Amino acid sequence: MNLRATFASLHAPNYRRYFAGQVVSLTGNWMQTVAEMWLVVQLTGSGVAVGVTAGLQFAPMLLLGAYGGLLADRFDKRRLLLVTQSLMAVPALVLWLVTAAGVVEVGMVYAVVALRGLVNAVDNPARQSFVPEIVGADRVVNAVSLNSVIVHTARIAGPALAGVLIAVVGTATCFALNALSFGAMFLALRGMDARRLAPVARTPRAPGQIRAALQEVRRRPELAIPLAMMALVGTVSFNFQVLLPLFADRTWHGTASSYALLTSAMGVGSVAGALLAGARGRVGPGLLVGAAGLFGVAELAAAAAPSLVAQGVLLIPLGAVSVTFAAGVNSSLQLAAGDGLRGRVMALYSVVFIGSTALGGPAVGALAQAAGPRTGLVAGGVAALLAAAGAGAAYTRRGELAPLYPRLTPAALPSSDHGPVDGPGHARRRLRVAPRAGAAAPGVAASAARSAEAPAHGADARRARPAHGAARRRGVPARR
Fold it and tell me: Which of 41-45, 68-72, 207-211, 392-396 is most confident?
């Protein structure tokens, strides 16, 4: 693995600050998530209640995530994040107070979780779309992969710390430390050098802007196919925070430490997968389809684990392929979305990845309650395999099982210096065989491909027609 390529984004001082603040903040967030789920299990003993907790956390993203993305397009993202990160501390403080006072009830947990989800509906799209402004378009894939490292490093450290704290001093301390952890992200954002950022033009207020984003996604397969894959996988397959506490409590008859072991094992694999993705530096349909297929196989294997230790071992490759898939979808969308739409497109990603848990969490929780946690993992594995099969068929029909965003040279771009472009098939072939040296910005690549596939208009069309006519007069069939 090329370590220099893997950590390329950390050469940017602003990204180093962002990275450090996120590590602390997300570690605290995972501590709270583990403590919340364990608290609900102890208060109710119900798999459905655990699923409802996950659903309430993500329902605001499902309902309001697209509007949160619109706010990210309209406002300065760094200032918006300063507000949301401050507000995220409030639910943690409230839950700490009621738990420490010994008056906590499951309804209170539900309310606090929903409040946190409401703020996250704005915070998450802003954080996702802020990354290209920190590192630039040429490091987006690397930065998205390193963000996955942050998330899954926190997934290791957070549950491990939570398991110790719950066993020694109880759940309330986890909530207090999470409230404090948001200060690290606030300081990181305040400490950034604004001159080194690359802010995009803000989208002016206008009617129908969310509808315009949806129409853009429907029109462009490079956005629609990854989002459709994530919609299915996010709803059914990414429900580990519902299933793992049930495995620890019901299947393995363990304690909070058992839950922390399973979550940490998956986090180890996730970090490894994210580091490998960061070294890759590019993403294409083959990666998305392959990762989804391996995701399904690994989830089915984890469902069949005969013991706690065996399941922990199997969760390591599952974590690696799950984060490879999620980071691949994220990077594809970041690169394909235009600057003026990136907030809304990444909000749609958050809706189908995070918000879909509002539907899938309670459903998978009810399935696990009725038929056991293993059945929940089986359903997730089957869904990931279906996503891989459907996307593979769609990409094959389009002839696009090759990198969506190759490194382009001027020879790959249609121009008079390199001859005419013979329609969409020819344009795609030329993009595919371009040498790797000399990269152009991803937005240029997407724009060039769309321009090459568009029919000629106006003067260009008038110039093209005589050439065909002359060919016919000479008895040479015109190209079609």
Answer: 392-396
Residue 83 has pLDDT above 90, yes or no: yes
Residues 224/217, Cβ–Cβ less than 8 Å: yes
Contact 377, 299 (CB under 8 A): yes
| Range with lowest mean pLDDT among 74-88, 134-148, 234-248, 414-428 | 414-428
Residue 177 in tokens:
């430390």
Taking Cα atoms as reference points, which of 23, 32, 31, 165 lies closest to residue 94?
Answer: 32
Q: Any idea which residue has 């697209």 for tokens?
A: 66
Cα 134 to Cα 111: distance, rounded to the nearest angstrom: 34
Residue 71: closest CA among 80, 58, 60: 80
The Cβ of residue 163 has, within 10 Å, a number of other Cβ atoms equal to: 24
For the stretch 109-142, pLDDT in tens is 999 999 999 999 899 888 888 888 888 777 877 8
Q: Is the separation of the CB atoms in 348 and 215 below 8 Å? A: no
Tell me the pLDDT tens digit for each residue of 101-110: 989 999 999 9
Reading the block at residue 14, the tokens are 């602003």
| Tokens, residue 64 | 């309001």
SS (H, E, C) the chain: CCHHHHCHHHHCHHHHHHHHHHHHHHHHHHHHHHHHHHHHHHHHCCHHHHHHHHHHHHHHHHHHHHHHHHHHHHCCHHHHHHHHHHHHHHHHHHHHHHHHCCCCCHHHHHHHHHHHHHHHHHHHHHHHHHHHHHHCHHHHHHHHHHHHHHHHHHHHHHHHHHHHHHHHCCCHHHHHHHHHHHHHHHHHHHCCCHHHCCCCCCCCCCCCHHHHHHHHHHHCHHHHHHHHHHHHHHHHCCCHHHHHHHHHHHHCCCCHHHHHHHHHHHHHHHHHHHHHHHHHCCCCHHHHHHHHHHHHHHHHHHHCCCCHHHHHHHHHHHHHHHHHHHHHHHHHHHHHCCHHHHHHHHHHHHHHHHHCHHHHHHHHHHHHHHHCHHHHHHHHHHHHHHHHHHHHHHHHHHCCCCCCCCCCCHHHCCCHHHCCCCCHHHHHHHHHCCCCCCCCCHHHHHHHHHHHHCCCCHHHHHHHHHHHHHHHHCCCCCCC
The torsion angles phi and psi of 69, rounded to 5 degrees, stand at -65, -35
